[in-house]
Amino acid sequence: MALVTMKELLQDAKKRKYAVGGFNVFNFETLGAVIEVAEELKTPLVLGIPERLFKFVDVETLSAAMIRGAQKTTVPVALHLDHGYTYEGVMKAIRWGFTSVMFDGSALSFEDNLKRTKEITRIAHSLGVSVEGELGYISYYDQIKDINEENMVKPDVAHRFVEKTRVDALAVAVGTNHGVYRGGPKLNFSRLSELNNTVNVPLVMHGGSKLSKEDYQSSIQSGITKINIATDMSMAAGETIRAELAKNQSANYIHLMSMVKKGVKDSVRKYMLSFDCISKAI
């Protein structure tokens, strides 16, 4: 199936009350793992890679493989730049064939975030590429108690941002956190519902790793249409390598990578089964 825009995927998710998994990949093994599970479970898919990995990964080559992989699948796939911070990074992704880009200006002032997101949206839309913006600061906290009300986006602010920028999706801070943190989640479902009733675009959850199935279900019912998973895939890969080397220190690279792929597939499958997206690609 040909690549689609993320706008197409999320509009359907919003209509049919499920969440598309936004899985960040970083090599051929993780790419293959995510696509194979999406095929197995017949789920729509957002394949992502964040701009911060540009310095570590040959993204131009990897994105070509992502496009080829998506074209060979029987499920709809959007190729997405996750957390683009610079104009140059966003433009590279568009040139490489991404069908969706995110501009993350959440650490900027509201006015600067609005201005830069609006300009990127204008350019991307002229090229048929969808855009995700972000409001509220979804940072990296060591302790869940550090996430407070001031970090969460307010409905009137979100309405103005969406209206002015014309983004296709909005990542909102409602109590999740990027990376690994100690303590349970602190999701504000009432705020999420308010946002869903205030803005007319699909809402996105970042920092979606390690929540409970009940949290995912409640988030979807409250308006979330895409849930980003990155940290847990990386952790699963690392844990798999450590476990294999503990059993056999002379294990070669080919064996380790085949086991990494299996470990990541197990992780991805677990999340997809919690997102109500199974068989939605049929």
Helix share, percent: 40-55%
Number of helices: 10
- Total tally of structural domains: 1
Strand order of the largest sheet: 1-2-3-4-5-6-7-8
How many individual β-strands?
A: 8
What does this structure look like?
This protein has 282 residues and is α/β, with parallel strands linked by helices. The protein has one domain: Aldolase class I (TIM Barrel, Alpha-Beta Barrel), CATH 3.20.20.70. It contains 10 helices and 8 strands. It has helices at residues 6-16, 28-41, 59-72, 87-95, 110-126, 155-165, 189-198, 213-221, 231-247, 253-272, and strands at 20-24, 45-50, 77-84, 100-103, 130-135, 169-172, 203-205, 224-229. It has an 8-stranded parallel beta barrel, surrounded by 10 helices. The chain is globular, with a radius of gyration of 18 Å.
Write the layout of secondary structure elements.
Elements: H1 6-16, E1 20-24, H2 28-41, E2 45-50, H3 59-72, E3 77-84, H4 87-95, E4 100-103, H5 110-126, E5 130-135, H6 155-165, E6 169-172, H7 189-198, E7 203-205, H8 213-221, E8 224-229, H9 231-247, H10 253-272
Parallel strand pairs: 1-2, 1-8, 2-3, 3-4, 4-5, 5-6, 6-7, 7-8
EC number: 4.1.2.13
Organism: Sporomusa termitida
Protein name: Putative fructose-bisphosphate aldolase
